[in-house]
Amino acid sequence: MLSKNTIKLIASLSQKKFRTQHQLFIVEGVKGIQEFLDSSFELYQLFATEANFSAETILISEKELQKISNLKSPNTALAIFKIPKQKTAEANGLILVLDEIRDPGNLGTIIRLCDWFGVKTLVCSEGTVDCYNPKVVQATMGSLARVHISYTNLSNYLKTANSAVFGTFMEGNNIYTEELPKEGIIVMGNEANGISLEVEQLIHKKLSIPRFGNLQTTESLNVATAAAVVLSAFRRGF
Amino acid sequence: MLSKNTIKLIASLSQKKFRTQHQLFIVEGVKGIQEFLDSSFELYQLFATEANFSAETILISEKELQKISNLKSPNTALAIFKIPKQKTAEANGLILVLDEIRDPGNLGTIIRLCDWFGVKTLVCSEGTVDCYNPKVVQATMGSLARVHISYTNLSNYLKTANSAVFGTFMEGNNIYTEELPKEGIIVMGNEANGISLEVEQLIHKKLSIPRFGNLQTTESLNVATAAAVVLSAFRRGF
């Protein structure tokens, strides 16, 4: 049985305000939950229609799950995990920096890309969508458990960075022919406005993804697919 | 003023059955509509709250637009365009083939990638989501007007193809080191199941995108970001 308070708590966690207040977030689906259980994240409560997990499980009915789920077709389990304390971003390796990414699906896809391309550190501007937003968690498919994400003032972060800072722009050195290092910081900009002027001034090398199609249109690549191309270009030589 | 019949027609076009019956589809937003007006697509009717277009416009109120729009925050215009007759797929150039892509957002993103990477021909299996689905049209950001899309039986299509057929798999030649041709056919598979067995048998060369992250997980790349990496790899040398 679910108490009224539990139902209220879970519903509240779809809002950032309450996630911050309680320092908790929601993961849905057996596969995703298992990936968080296998990681360093700490479980708060686990609800499921079947006892499939090694962790302590509160058994609920399908009807109860439907009531607390954010999904149209709920899976068989929903878990509440604790938001880990934010650590200082690592200074080494390939680091991705996001300047005001607003769309939860884009952030989720980018976290998944980081996991694939071995980018362990993702640094987000304070205005970037919250990575514990349920839509982001869902889109990461468990990768969120393996990528270290921090939110900070990008100007301060980039000013004190030791590595070369790269950014993608409409004009810049061709990413396919440029020699790219194994370590460095790559900045991706906002969906509509790209990299902000303040951050642009802190970029050491401007890169661009050549366009092969119709050159008349002003259309750009979606930020998540652009991140796929950029990370792929940085990794291909190693 | 909008007639009841017009409102009914527009509502019906969110379903494939009625798009096929009427051979019409919906485009929303000034920018997208302008790109279709500038293309070879034929306008059927155009509704807008302001007279912004060179084409004949039926002026409607914001309230009326809200009633016919599929969007939560409707733009200022909605247009009905005619679905063009399906042409035979071109045999030359770089061709992308989709095997049962189900998610409208993924198809929209892939059409946008084709536009960017100069892929003029996209061949879809009959079970791939309809490219005139409003969510696909919205996600293409106008690219749909510039990429030639056809739906066909993939086995028949690939059996008679003149070019080399490539596909991405978990196991295959490293896409970063493989020498890739300027022309050819690239197959991308379904979100959950990848390339079907029937289609796999018609692939000449298996490629794979190396993973740099945690090798224990079974997680794969999203099909749209995988398409970005693959198209980028095929284009980087040219």
From TrEMBL, chains A, B:
Which Gene3D superfamilies does this entry report, sorted A to Z? 3.30.1330.30, 3.40.1280.10
Residues in domain tRNA/rRNA methyltransferase SpoU type?
Answer: 94-231
List where this protein forms a coiled coil.
Answer: none
Instruction: Report the CDD domains cross-referenced here.
Output: SpoU-like_RNA-MTase (cd18109)
Is Transferase among this UniProt entry's keywords? yes
Cite the entry's keywords alphabetically: Methyltransferase, Transferase
- Per UniProt, residues of the MRM3-like substrate binding domain are 5-79
Q: Does the keyword Glycosyltransferase apply?
A: no
For the biological process aspect of GO, one term held by this record is: methylation
Looking up Pfam families in the UniProt record yields: MRM3-like_sub_bind, SpoU_methylase
UniProt GO MF annotations: RNA binding; RNA methyltransferase activity
UniProt lists the family membership as follows:
Belongs to the class IV-like SAM-binding methyltransferase superfamily. RNA methyltransferase TrmH family.
The protein's name is: RNA methyltransferase
State the species of origin: Subsaximicrobium wynnwilliamsii
